[in-house]
From TrEMBL:
The keyword Membrane does not apply. It comes from Streptomyces melanosporofaciens. Keywords: Oxidoreductase. GO terms for molecular function: oxidoreductase activity. InterPro entries: NAD(P)-bd_dom_sf (IPR036291), Sc_DH/Rdtase_CS (IPR020904), SDR_fam (IPR002347). This is NAD(P)-dependent dehydrogenase, short-chain alcohol dehydrogenase family. It holds the Pfam family adh_short_C2. It comes from the Bacteria. Belongs to the short-chain dehydrogenases/reductases (SDR) family.
Length: 254
């Protein structure tokens, strides 16, 4: 691995498993100090311990990204502990998001939007000033391919992820002249614990979804981590305000 993130301090939300954990480990392997924010204390501490055991620097901060005061605390701890903030992967999200517009209750809508969109607003609100104060840097927000096209079976989730794309573009324009870049990932099918659990309980539906993938497989979390690390590095310095598909070609047919 290179040291292209040497001396950078990076926050990863939802860093206790899946894409977040893979990205936390990857950026640490390239020299970054990593602060993991997640709700699962045991798994978050385990990821931080693994990074430390491999010679990296990592800290876990228990964080519910739907609570603004906890997001603010995550950023404050990072700056106080490591002297600044240079980047973030706002990855936390997901949850049970199925339901059509005629089925979804208002409380369900609120919970999905809070976890997948409002959390990103809180993160950007507190990360951007800290990154500006540290001399600039890069933020990556994890959206989804359903941030590029509607999904009638997951209306709240699709609306939230569309919101993440709009929020990304707005934040990118707002902070560009102060040295902060903001981009979004349109992630497709990724082999996470959530996906593996779905395939075990719904093998027929899982096979049907896989058949729709142009390259015939799901992404490994390491592939998402590699691209996210590039976007967090100075090598991607002219990429800003973009919604970038990493989906095996799925959105090429939208």
């Amino acid at each position: 691995m290179s040291n292209r993130l040497q001396s950078k301090v990076i926050i990863v939300t939802g860093g206790s498993s899946g894409m977040g954990a893979a990205t936390a480990k990857r950026v640490a392997s390239e020299g970054a100090t990593v602060v993991i924010g997640a709700r699962d204390k045991a798994r978050g501490e385990a990821v931080a311990a693994e990074i430390t055991a491999d010679g990296g620097t990592a800290l876990f901060v228990p964080t519910d990204v739907t609570a603004e005061e906890q997001v603010a605390h995550l950023v404050d701890v990072t700056v106080n502990e490591f002297g600044g903030l240079n980047g973030a992967f706002n990855n936390a999200g997901g949850g049970n998001s199925h339901g059509t517009i005629r089925e979804v209750e208002a409380s369900f809508w609120d919970s999905v939007v809070a976890l997948n969109l409002t959390s990103v607003f809180y993160s950007l609100k507190h990360e951007i000033p800290a990154i500006i104060a540290s001399g600039g840097g890069s933020i990556v927000n994890n959206a989804s391919v359903v941030g590029a096209a509607g999904d009638p079976s997951a209306v709240a989730y699709s609306a939230a992820k569309h919101g993440v794309v709009g929020l990304t573009r707005s934040a990118a324009l707002d902070a560009a002249k102060e040295g902060v870049r903001v981009n979004a990932l349109l992630t497709g099918l990724v082999n996470t614990p959530l996906w593996r659990g779905f395939t075990e309980s719904n093998p027929g539906a899982a096979n049907s979804i896989l058949e729709q993938q142009p390259i015939g497989r799901s992404a490994d979390v390491s592939e998402i981590a590699a691209f996210t690390t590039f976007l967090l590095s100075d090598e991607s310095g002219f990429i800003n305000g973009a919604a970038l598909a990493i989906d095996g070609g799925l959105t090429a047919g939208y």
